[in-house]
């Protein structure tokens, strides 16, 4: 069932450590199914691990996490070649697309080679909820900060741009993130931005932020705006999701 408007859930979370240390689907991913209007059946999720090079062991772990949560998980792999012939049709069969973390710079390059930039716009407009964590959050925006190029964070400015903002992820857990994002907004390298602490997600309907949500109580979201020659940060208090830690 498609969402009633083009919807993106951009996060710094979605998975957590379950019994035995195995990953489990956390409340942010379950919220993506709620946004998609899923009811009375198993939700269907398409995972893209492009940013980590489509690691098959990780795909298997996510498939198992889905089974444990009653979620049907499929994977779109692009290495070494696409694993489906009709990429657009495959994505449109799912309630939610979930893009994993890793190298957002590599992800964007590979997606463009395979036409995913164009295909995702079609999928988004059709009401499939687009979501993801870290690189899977940055990619929908104009840009943000990334470690794709090395341990010192650098700007990425060629995101898909479905959302006309910059994006900051892991805002509370990686010390370089906050000052660099503020500096890039202040000097005009990036437009005004929204950022998330770990465990927090941003819900966009169309291109408008409508809500911040969290699976970890006490964490925050933020708007960073250019003001004069500097940047101003404003906290956005997220709604705590059911099942939050």
Report on this model:
The protein has 245 residues and is of the alpha/beta class. It has one domain: Rossmann fold. It is built from seven helices and 16 strands. The strands form three sheets. It has an eight-stranded mixed beta sheet with strand order 5-4-6-7-1-12-13-16, with helices on both faces. A six-stranded mixed beta sheet has the order 9-8-10-11-14-15. A hairpin with a 2-residue loop joins strand 12 and strand 13 (208-214). It is globular, with a radius of gyration of 17 Å. The two termini are 29 Å apart. The mean pLDDT is 97.
The structure class reads: alpha/beta
Low-confidence stretches: none
Q: Element order, helices and strands?
A: EEEHEHEHEHHEHEEEHEEEEEE
Query: How much β-strand is present in the residues?
Result: 25-35%
Question: What is the name of the CATH architecture?
Answer: 3-Layer(aba) Sandwich
pLDDT averaged over residues:
97
Which key phrases capture this entry?
245 residues; alpha/beta; Rossmann fold; 26% helix; 29% strand
Tell me briefly what this model is.
The protein is α/β, with parallel strands linked by helices and 245 residues long. The chain is built from seven helices and 16 strands.
Summarize the helices and strands and which ones pair or pack:
Elements: E1 7-11, E2 15-17, E3 23-25, H1 27-35, E4 44-48, H2 56-69, E5 72-75, H3 87-92, E6 96-99, H4 104-113, H5 116-125, E7 129-133, H6 135-138, E8 143-146, E9 154-156, E10 166-168, H7 177-186, E11 193-196, E12 200-205, E13 208-214, E14 221-227, E15 230-236, E16 239-240
Parallel strand pairs: 1-7, 4-5, 4-6, 6-7, 8-10, 10-11, 13-16
Antiparallel strand pairs: 1-12, 2-3, 8-9, 11-14, 12-13, 14-15
């Amino acid at each position: 069932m498609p969402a009633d408007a083009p919807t993106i859930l951009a996060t710094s979370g979605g998975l957590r450590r379950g019994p035995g240390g195995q990953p489990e689907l956390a409340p942010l991913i379950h919220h993506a199914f709620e946004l998609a209007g899923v009811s009375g059946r198993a939700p269907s999720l398409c995972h893209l691990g492009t940013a980590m090079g489509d690691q098959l062991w990780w795909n298997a772990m996510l498939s198992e996490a889905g089974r444990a949560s009653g979620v049907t998980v499929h994977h779109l792999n692009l290495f070494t070649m696409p694993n489906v012939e009709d990429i657009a049709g495959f994505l449109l069969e799912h309630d939610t697309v979930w893009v994993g973390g890793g190298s957002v710079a590599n992800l964007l390059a590979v997606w463009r080679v395979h036409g995913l930039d164009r295909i995702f716009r079609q999928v988004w407009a059709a009401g499939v909820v687009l979501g993801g964590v870290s690189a899977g959050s940055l990619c929908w925006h104009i840009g943000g900060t990334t470690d794709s190029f090395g341990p010192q964070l650098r700007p990425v400015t060629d995101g898909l741009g479905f959302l006309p903002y910059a994006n900051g992820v892991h805002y509370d857990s990686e010390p370089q993130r906050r000052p660099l994002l503020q500096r890039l907004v202040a000097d005009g390298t990036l437009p005004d931005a929204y950022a998330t602490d770990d465990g927090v997600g941003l819900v966009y309907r169309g291109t408008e932020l409508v809500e911040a949500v969290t699976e970890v109580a006490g964490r925050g979201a933020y708007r960073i705006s250019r003001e004069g020659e500097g940047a101003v940060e404003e906290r956005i208090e997220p709604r705590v999701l059911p099942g939050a830690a």
